[in-house]
Write a structure and sequence with these properties.
Elements: E1 2-10, H1 16-26, H2 28-31, E2 39-44, E3 54-60, H3 63-71, H4 73-85, E4 86-94
Length: 100
């Protein structure tokens, strides 16, 4: 299982509350349409001085499924929506190891 960890910094002009609503409610509608997405979590930062405002986790069966999802029309729409609401996005491809 491949997990994409996305570190998101909100766009200039968005309050923490506006960004949190977008991340948890509005952007979810884009994520629901991604083909091959197995699991999706959104973690909203609590601290005002956090370097990122949210950390999202997207699970796919493998790299091919991830690449196909992001290359799809729904993937491109999700990326466009994220780009409009963030000033910075960092994606880290990982393999999760749940230890307990």
């Amino acid at each position: 299982m491949l997990k994409v960890v996305s570190l998101l910094k909100r766009a200039e002009g968005l309050s923490k509350e506006e960004f949190a609503k977008w991340a948890v409610e509005d952007h979810l509608e884009f994520a629901k349409k991604l083909p091959g997405l197995r699991r999706y979590t959104v973690n909203v930062a609590v601290a005002e001085d956090s370097p990122y405002d949210a950390v999202n986790e997207l699970w796919f069966d493998d790299e091919e499924a991830r690449a196909a999802a992001f290359a799809s029309e729904d993937g491109k729409a999700a990326a466009g929506d994220a780009g409009a609401h963030t000033s910075s996005r960092v994606h880290v491809l990982t393999t999760a190891h749940e230890l307990f």
